[in-house]
Amino acid sequence: MTRKHTESRQTLSDYHVHTSLCHHAEGLTSEYLDQARLKNIPELCFTDHAPNPHGYDPANRMALDDFAAYQAMIRPLQKSESPRVLFGVEADYYPGGLDFLRQWLAAHSFDFVLGSVHYVGDWGIDSPAEMHRWRTADVPDAWRKYFLLLADLADTHLFDAVGHLDLPKKFGFVPPEQDIAGMAGPALDRIAEAGMSIEVNTAGLRKPIGEIYPSPLLLRMARERGITICFGSDAHKPGEVGFEFPAALRLAREAGYTHAARYSRRRRTLVPLPEAAANNP
Ligand SMILES: [Zn+2]
Ligand SMILES: [Zn+2]
Question: Domain 3-272 belongs to what architecture?
Answer without folding.
Answer: Alpha-Beta Barrel (3.20)
